[in-house]
Amino acid sequence: MTEYPKPPFDTPKQTMPGKTDKMNPRPDHGEQSYKGAGRLTGKKAVITGGDSGIGRAIAIAYAREGADVLISYLDEHDDAEETRSWIEKAGRKAVLFPGNIQTADHCRQIIDTAVSKLGGLDILVNNAAHQASFSDIGEISDEEWEITFQTNIHAMFYLTKAAVKHMKPGASIINTASINADAPSPHLLAYATTKGAIQNFTAGLAQMLAEKEIRVNAVAPGPIWTPLIPSTMPDENVRNFGKQVPMKRPGQPAELATAYVMLADPLSSYVSGATIAVTGGEPIL
């Protein structure tokens, strides 16, 4: 709990969506620490936003637990290739699929490619997200509002709809929500609103898919140190990022991986409709 860096941070400002190598300190994705135990042996997973941050940590953990993984990402090819290397070092198959998930056709292509190249689909992790900071509603353009919803919630619907028809009983869908679903930041109005929608989508879908024996859950991260932060937040917020939670620091992507593994694990067969908070001690209601 105390070994990771605490603010203040001196990391350079980046353009969206940000790069891992430019961050200081560099995020920990579990590259050296995560030890697998075969909990996902033979599973086939899709992870959106899997090139860096939380998505990379999930990919590393899933591969070391025995899963083959398709990584969906926008255009951060260097980050995606590094994630691929960690999956392959674990002895598992990695498929990279770049492109914008804002369209239904692209989302369907992601799922079809996973089924074709991995040989099936057991786990869908809807993790990709867009956010931007604004101090006044008048600063949020119509296009910015639409992009946030298209990326964060519309794509989740498209991907899930396409995936379910390929999933067998025991499959798992895991959505990345946020502490912002329960404690919305006014500077992240559009983003926080979509995270509230994700929370409801998860709860409703878990009930809808229970008869198909497909579980649906969410993880609600607090402040996590990823490239999204220095590329979307004001300098002062980045400098003191994570200081507000009881642990007085941001979480590292590696610290979320076990939540996603637990929710994908077939042994978690009675866990559906749940939201797992990973917030450094900050309660969500």
Characterise the protein shown here.
This protein is of the alpha/beta class and 285 residues long. The chain has helices spanning 53-64, 77-89, 104-118, 142-164, 189-208, 228-232, 235-239, 257-264, and strands at residues 44-48, 68-73, 94-98, 123-126, 172-176, 215-221, 275-278. The two termini are 23 Å apart.
Concise account of the structure shown:
This protein is of the alpha/beta class and about 280 residues long. The chain has 8 helices and 7 strands, in the order E-H-E-H-E-H-E-H-E-H-E-H-H-H-E.
Layout of strands and helices, then pairs:
Elements (H helix, E strand, L loop, with lengths): L43 E5 L4 H12 L3 E6 L3 H13 L4 E5 L5 H15 L4 E4 L15 H23 L7 E5 L12 H20 L6 E7 L6 H5 L2 H5 L17 H8 L10 E4 L7
Parallel strand pairs: 1-2, 1-4, 2-3, 4-5, 5-6, 6-7
Helix pairs in contact: 1-2, 1-8, 3-4, 4-5
